[in-house]
Design goal:
Layout: E1 14-15, H1 25-28, E2 42-43, E3 58-59, E4 68-70, E5 73-88, E6 91-98, E7 107-110, E8 114-121, E9 130-132, E10 156-162, E11 167-172, H2 177-182, E12 187-192, E13 205-214, E14 233-236, E15 247-250, E16 253-261, E17 267-271, E18 277-281, E19 284-285, E20 296-299, E21 304-311, E22 315-321, H3 344-353, H4 366-370, E23 384-387, E24 390-394, E25 398-404, H5 468-473
Parallel strand pairs: 1-2, 3-13, 5-8, 7-12, 13-16, 15-25
Antiparallel strand pairs: 4-5, 5-6, 8-10, 9-11, 11-12, 13-14, 16-21, 17-20, 17-22, 18-19, 18-21, 22-25, 23-24
Bound molecules: copper (II) ion (CU).
Length: 477
């Protein structure tokens, strides 16, 4: 049971999931052998071989936990343990999670299933699992101290309940939560409807991911757990752009995206090129009368949201959190705004003291994306991600919904960048530019300035306290 076995192998964005190994009769009497996953790839949906059929979800940069049926009960085995998570290529974090990964594997069951979950604690401290959003007996709710004893180090506890209502749920510890959630302990839970449900549509693609946030100093591996606000890594399933896989769909697919928020702030999730409906919340499917088309919906702390749309526009459509600081990686927050400030004199003064001092951001921050600055080892670049037209200048909570007419049903392989039809890309104007019609300067119509100083305001630029790339790397946003 303690052997770490990779049941799921392969390379690329999508690899093949393998169902749990056949279980011998002797083993049936014991706990199910836990299944582990060490790769951060998006695994192909796990098609159920036992129990009621359903359309499985795709966990972005994650996987679904195989189960076994034991006398009509669906049995899962979660192992809470320290893990190493690759958050983006070249950047690994030392987190806590379940079964080899943070977040833990997605659990998928069907409305009416009797579910038994074995939880083994291999953390250095006690834990528990709260089944966020479920209807269940009070003693199965997982609040240590209140509804159960915390699971001591090295022990295994059993949770058992009926999956009563269909919907989108989460699981996470309810013991030393501040530490354990800051370290990445969380996972998704889907209860599929047992039959056609009037408020739950069949979809062609069903993606799930959790929003999470970490505070990891550049060059460090372990999150700081005392952080309340100053997180510097905003992630989906503990991955940051460009480490987040694209959401690949076929043109005219009906697409569902389920998002859970276990960070300490809200995230307005924004989709380009399509309108979506919020078809479900923590409380289950939304009444049809409450649905309205949106392109952004806020996912508040502790909430789940289900978005649905018809992917009828081909292209590479950005999908991201609309808080611009959440689409950046470690760096940048405390950097003063330097746009429009000429630094040449300041730099000359500073380089007398700090020879390798470097100025950033006098033309905006875009230079940063392309600049190959020396960063401490094991640091996610603040913003990067090469697109077909240059740097995407993004990090953090950002990915791309790739809509293709020739994508095969059930194929999640990255089709590469969209090939735009001729004449459908913004282009440079090379003709003559008419003289701009200035307003105030040429006596045009404009509002009178009130209470404004008559002469130009002098800008006082504070001398930067820190210099050099390493010091800038220590800043947060
Ligand atoms: Cu956000």
């Amino acid at each position: 049971m303690t052997n770490r076995r990779n049941f799921l192998t392969g390379a690329g964005a999508i690899t093949t999931a393998v169902a749990a190994a056949a279980v011998s009769r002797v083993a049936m009497a014991a706990l199910p052998e836990p299944v582990f996953q060490s790769k951060p790839d998006t695994m192909a949906p796990l098609v159920p071989e036992t129990g009621r059929p359903y359309n499985p979800v795709v966990t972005l940069n994650g996987w679904t936990l195989p189960w076994r049926m034991n006398n009509g009960v669906k049995e899962f085995h979660l192992v809470a343990e320290p893990v190493v998570r690759e958050m983006s290529p070249g950047f690994k974090a030392h987190l806590w999670g379940y079964n080899g990964q943070s977040p833990g594997p997605t659990i998928e069951v069907v409305e009416g299933d009797r579910v038994r979950i074995f939880v083994t604690n291999k953390l250095p401290e006690h834990t528990s699992v709260h089944w966020h959003g479920q209807r269940l007996p009070n003693g199965m709710d997982g609040v240590s101290g209140l509804t159960q004893k915390a699971i001591p180090v090295g022990k295994t506890f059993v949770y058992e309940f009926l999956a009563k209502r269909p919907g989108t749920f989460m699981y996470h510890p309810h013991a030393d939560e501040m530490t354990q959630m800051a370290m990445g302990m969380m996972g998704f839970w889907i209860t599929h409807p047992k039959a056609r449900h009037p408020l739950i549509d069949e979809v062609n693609r069903d993606f799930v991911f959790l929003l999470n946030a970490y505070d990891i100093d550049p060059g460090a591996y372990t999150p700081k757990i005392m952080t309340m606000l100053d997180f510097n890594l905003w992630s989906w399933n503990s991955r940051v752009f460009p480490g987040i896989d694209p959401l690949v769909v076929r043109k005219n697919d009906k697409v569902r995206i389920r998002i859970g928020n276990l960070t300490m702030t809200n995230h307005p999730m924004h989709l380009h090129g399509h309108e979506f409906l919020v078809t479900g919340t923590d409380g289950g499917p939304t009444p049809k009368s409450s649905r309205q088309y949106e392109v952004t919906t806020d996912v508040a702390v502790g909430q789940m949201r289900q978005l649905e749309f018809l992917a009828d526009e081909e292209g590479d459509w950005a999908f991201h959190c609309h808080k611009s600081h959440h689409t950046m990686n470690a760096m940048g927050h405390d950097v003063p705004t330097l746009i429009g400030v000429d630094h040449r004199k300041v730099v000359k003064d500073i380089t007398n003291v700090i020879p390798d001092y470097m100025v950033m951001g006098e033309r905006g921050m875009a230079d940063m994306a392309e600049m190959d600055m020396p960063l401490p080892d094991n640091t996610a670049r603040m913003m990067s991600g090469e697109g077909p037209f240059g740097s995407v200048e993004m990090g953090g909570m950002f990915s791309v919904v790739k809509v293709r007419k020739d994508q095969k049903a059930g194929d999640y392989k990255d089709p590469g960048w969209y090939k735009h039809p001729a004449g459908e890309v913004a282009y440079e104007w090379t003709g003559a530019l008419p003289n701009p019609a200035r307003f105030a300067a040429e006596g045009g119509q404009t509002m009178k300035a009130q209470n404004m100083p008559a002469k130009e305001v002098e800008v006082q630029v504070r001398k930067p306290v820190m210099g050099g790339a390493g010091a800038m790397g220590g800043m947060k946003h």
